[in-house]
Every structure is written in C-alpha cells, then in structure tokens.
Design brief:
Elements: H1 2-11, H2 13-17, H3 30-57, E1 59-64, H4 70-73, E2 74-75, E3 78-80, E4 127-133, E5 148-153, E6 164-171, E7 176-177, E8 182-184, H5 187-200, E9 209-214, E10 220-227, E11 230-233
Antiparallel strand pairs: 1-9, 2-3, 3-8, 4-5, 4-6, 6-7, 9-10, 10-11
Length: about 230
Amino acid sequence: MNTNNTDLLVENPDTTNLFQLPPEAKRIPGWRLWIPLLLQIGLIAAVPAQSVYTFVTGKTVILQTVPVDPYDLLRGYYQVLSYDISQSNNLEKLPGWKDLPPSDIKACPVGIVCPDKKTHYVKAGTSFYVILESPKDAANSGSPKAWKPVGVSLENPPNLPANQIALQGKYNGWRMEYGLETYYMPENEREKVNNDIGVAQRAKRQSFVVEVKVDKTGHAVPVSLWVRDRNYRF
C-alpha cells in the first residue's frame, strides 16, 4: 500500500510539487534601501538649511509692498503680498532690463490689443537679479524706508557696493516673483496685525514694508512686516 502511494507521487508531478519548498527569495541589499531614503532626507533638510544660512549671513533689506485692501492682506493663516519690484513697469526703465531674454510672442490673438512694440517684454520663466540700493536717510522714527531698485541683471553681479544687494527673481509670465510672496503668521499675531491695519487704513489705503534677509547668492527669506511703527515677525 505504501509502495503504491510512493509510485503515485513519483508519477504525478503536480502532486510532487505540493511537497517541494519554494526557492529562497533573493534578499535586496540594505544599501539599496538606505541610499534613496538618505537622499530624500537630504533634499528635505536642504530647504531649511538654505533659509538658516540666508538668515544668518544675509544682509537686511527693506522691500516696499504695493497698496492693499486690509481685508485682502490677511486671509486664513497665510498672507499674500506683492511688491513694487513685482511689477515689470517698475523695472523696465532700469539699466539691464533690455538684456533679459525677450518674449517669443510674435503676434496678438484676435480681439486683443497688441502691446507697444517699443516696450521690451521678458520671456516667461526668465530668472534674473534686481539690484537694490539702500536709502541714504534710512534712519526713521517710524517704519524703515524701502530699498530702491537701480538695475537688472541676467547674472548675479559681482563686486557690488556695500549699499547694494542683488535679489534673485523669476518672471512667471504675469509678474516678477522672489519667493517672498506668501507668509505664515500665528493666529495671535494675525489678530494684532488685522487690528493695526484697520486703524492705519481708516483714512486711506496704504502700503507696508517687509524686512527680509538676502544672501550673496540672491536668495532671500522673510523676517518681519512693518505696519506704521509696529513690527510683526513671521
């Protein structure tokens, strides 16, 4: 009887496979798992590291914002600001503007008024540097005075005077962006700012200034918002 069972197992390969152990799975080397993980951690850590470097080594610069409606400035937990240097018409007359790559738009769509041919329109996606200069009479009893744009450059200009700094920006096809447009502010600070803005703008709409740090590469980080003579840190 036992002999017959053995013969059946030998003759039936499907039955034999039921008693065979699966081949040992190939083990993946540990370094193949750790290296991608370490690279991801490094990329995540590089962002705050760059900001810390800029905050520690950067030069303090004051940027002028455009006038805003107080109800549009603080929405939710984030504040969205626009600056004088965000608008191309405030930069197009500066030295170096016409050296930026021109827009590749050759014709206007039907029904759209064509722009002035004398105006130099910059190609969307262009990275550039706007050169800012500190005011001569920076000392002020109220909020600090804003730095003024004095030039534009496609490359980071070397050997600038001590009273100048190059801030890196990018044209998105609509406006200039510097990575300083959106801020987070704690809820308790947000309420104070809202109240202060309301008092400051009861008579008329007015703009504010933002204090930032700019390092030698042109990278910038926000520091605080000035509303009249009051300072609110981000």
